[in-house]
């Protein structure tokens, strides 16, 4: 119970009677063919790894043409799921054996080494951040010194640039290591969820819905991954704040400490925010689970929903769940807006308090060096303070996700099916004193004692609901075994009542991942020959998910062919003949069950009594108990219940002799019982043509920039361009007030008597700072409100449109691809997109303001800014052209993970019966790796970008510092400490702004990819309208006319 399934190489089925192993080598659902080239990072040299130059080839290709799947390297062995999972499993097994198991501890131990190596590089990055304010202070002091020496100034400028580059190198390695750790954790968690799904008990399944499982692999694993990426900030951010406070003390004395004391005052507020956020996150996740579950159920049974005209009912139900989910998300967004206001306003309020206490309380003179150095330190302090609540929010989300994953991984499991080597002298199937239940303690089968002899054909009969199918499930260990023993000697082949067909070719559905059986014999005995001749691509015809392009009888015969191909020792048939025409069913019974499989143990559940005399024995079930067992003649002579049952099934005529009737063979071929005339042609030796094969269409993929109509669609859902204009006005006002507060300090510092009119200058600075904070709050509040409204409209349009899509769309589209839109893509738009868009727009406006202010006060800086802008455009173009295509490939490669998961969940009983869990798990691991290779390239390209932008930003800082220290005509005459402080303060911000704008812009564009994917589903072709004009009234007459009907 609660055990995580192991990868066991020794868990193989013994060869069946025909000598063939039942073990599968892989489930083709569908084939994954990664690039032949390995990931080059591990083979790169030191300089290439430090500079991420090993990414240059793929960046260059992406700049020339849209990247294709084959352009992206596959994962190396150390990052592949098959390698990672055993290591993680070892830690989890150790935790599971502890009194209080902790999935968090298992995850931590799994990534500990790489995670803390990343922490080592972060130390360098954090230390470098403080060199900027310190060199700023030194340069302002150098400018103010009448006896300044130019070599000293140049040395300071060079040192500032060098330390900035060292910090950039440390940051790149830090992020690469922790993000790779997070990716590895995501891989093993998704794989663990899949493996656990194949072992869940029925009582556990009742508590853990399919929607919740989909949410876990789509959102919960992402939440854990996100926290791992940012977890180091839990110690780094407070440490940076403490160092900032210490440096402030060196600048302002106790005034700096008094100002910084405001920061602890925000802790109770943060605690309140996080407490509410935790509850809201749990509530929204619960509604999201239910919504995804209902959506999956609707589209998995869409034909029934359309047939009974339940569209409006389900639409109302899903939209009701969506409204409740979004109400929790909206409340959380409002809390984050308030938190956003506090985090960004706090440094400005701190600076006001610190400057006021320095001047008014302690009577000191505020120098230019002190003012701008303190502002630079406050700026350094802002980022960790901004990060800390985000990391705490990530921690809350990860804690909720880990809790859900841990509960799932500790859920009750089915018992392992006992397996023994087949022995003709012993019964093939034995159940002693068995009691079985589907869920909880509600016993379905009572006191089962059954012994099935080797080679016997045993029929199981009884009224509907008596437990016939449950008896087979108990043999397969699909039920909760409450008492007794079950023994199966030999391998099992299982034909369920509802045939399981997965998305693959007909051949793949029959062979089921094996290649050692007699395929021609299997399709012949299942009477599939004439059907195969009519299929568009014969044996290679692609069967849609759930066998949508097959009739019920054809699907059942494919399932039957699968069992024949398996060449097992024990065959379990759950009423397979009921879905077949009478003549086809007779042929299958004669040629296959009775003749071809003679000598194998066969248990046949049936409601067709004409076959009973042909069986060796009959088991009659009544109310979950074995009422009688014996041959037909024995039961007819000794069991009144049997006679009563036969009479009722035959319409009350108990005198009818239940014998096999002579029924013509299928398709007119001779079919005397026991003959094996092949009806299917031999499988061709060469690979058959695939013309006409495809049923499931490839997932749509756009290339190039996000299309204008996608942006227009989102703007329309958002509220229109008027709302966008209002938001832009608020954002511009915010940044104008922020820039004005910095310029005001320069004006103040340029006064001959800095101590004069202190209250006036301080009051204006405080007013500008507070105005910035207020407009920030209004900005985030408006964006949260309209963002949630847009998310609701997008979901409503997508769901309503899909409900009216024609059945051909669902035949060609795997369910997992649809679920991906309603889970991952919807989650991205609900949660992360508003925050990313908010910070991106503000950062873009701030970047323009910084460049504008610097150029206004020192026009000569355009000599540095213009070339940097050109290089920035080149880097941005190369990065975004590759990044957007990688994101699209990531989204497309994610759908097969969901599709494979969904298909395996639907056929889990068949997979377990054929002992295909390991083969299915291998297929799952391949799909995870295929998806995560795009993630690895994505964040590696971010590191490539970050280093180059740091270099460009550092060049501007270096150029600005050189213009300050060198005797340039027209500059040295106007250069003051206040101007130097303003220029260097803005120059130091430039690097972060360049990096932030490109990355956030790319992230925003990538999220527009989610909108693009949703928009595609709002534009799928529609069925005819529900109401056709001119046909609103029903016929009123009741006349039936027979007009020359022949």
From TrEMBL:
Name the GO cellular-component terms: membrane
Which species is this record about?
Plasmodiophora brassicae
Work out whether the entry's keyword set contains ATP-binding.
yes
Coiled-coil region list: none
Pfam families in alphabetical order: ABC_membrane (PF00664), ABC_tran (PF00005)
Which residues does the UniProt record annotate as the domain ABC transporter?
A: 429-648
Domain ABC transmembrane type-1 stretches: 116-397, 725-996
Basic and acidic residues: compositionally biased ranges: 1-13
Name the UniProt record assigns to this protein: ABC transmembrane type-1 domain-containing protein
* Chief site of localization: membrane
Citing just one GO molecular function, the answer is: ATP hydrolysis activity
* Family classification: Belongs to the ABC transporter superfamily. ABCC family. Conjugate transporter (TC 3.A.1.208) subfamily.
Record membrane topology: Multi-pass membrane protein
Q: Where is the composition biased (Low complexity)?
A: 667-678
* Region of interest (Disordered), ranges: 1-33, 667-692
Q: Where are the transmembrane segments?
A: 123-144, 150-170, 334-356, 368-392, 710-734, 754-779, 831-850, 856-876, 949-968, 974-994
Q: Which SUPFAM superfamilies did the record assign?
A: ABC transporter transmembrane region (SSF90123), P-loop containing nucleoside triphosphate hydrolases (SSF52540)
Q: Which domain of life is it from?
A: Eukaryota
**Matching PROSITE patterns, A to Z?**
ABC_TM1F, ABC_TRANSPORTER_1, ABC_TRANSPORTER_2
Q: Which UniProt keywords apply?
A: ATP-binding, Membrane, Nucleotide-binding, Repeat, Transmembrane, Transmembrane helix, Transport
Cellular location(s)? Membrane
